[in-house]
TrEMBL record:
InterPro entries cross-referenced by the UniProt entry: BofA
Entry keyword Membrane: yes
Pfam family, one: BofA
Keywords assigned: Membrane, Transmembrane, Transmembrane helix
Name of the protein this chain belongs to: Pro-sigmaK processing inhibitor BofA
């Protein structure tokens, strides 16, 4: 009887590790998306109030799931890439 509990506990721990491994990627994607969303929002706040040498630029970047994930995964280079794409489109 005690051996069965040990085997059940061992199988439960193995299944717990497998579930944690499977949930690691989706949680990382969600976390990077949230970080990208926050960084794009901050860039938009700064860009809306951008006033250089008396010229008002009103610079803003689109905030959607794709741009949030790009900014979240690539960081500052991703935000710069999005800004270049928006500037030329």
């Amino acid at each position: 009887m005690n051996e069965q509990y040990f085997i059940y506990g061992l199988v439960g721990i193995i299944l717990l590790f497998i579930i944690i491994k499977l949930l690691k990627w989706p949680m990382k994607i969600i976390l990077n998306g949230i970080i990208g969303l926050i960084s794009l929002y901050i860039v938009n706040i700064i860009g809306a109030n951008l006033n250089i040498i008396g010229l008002n630029f009103n610079f803003s970047l689109p905030i959607n799931p794709i741009t949030s994930l790009i900014a979240g995964f690539l960081g500052v280079p991703g935000i710069i890439a999005i800004a270049i794409i928006v500037f030329f489109m």
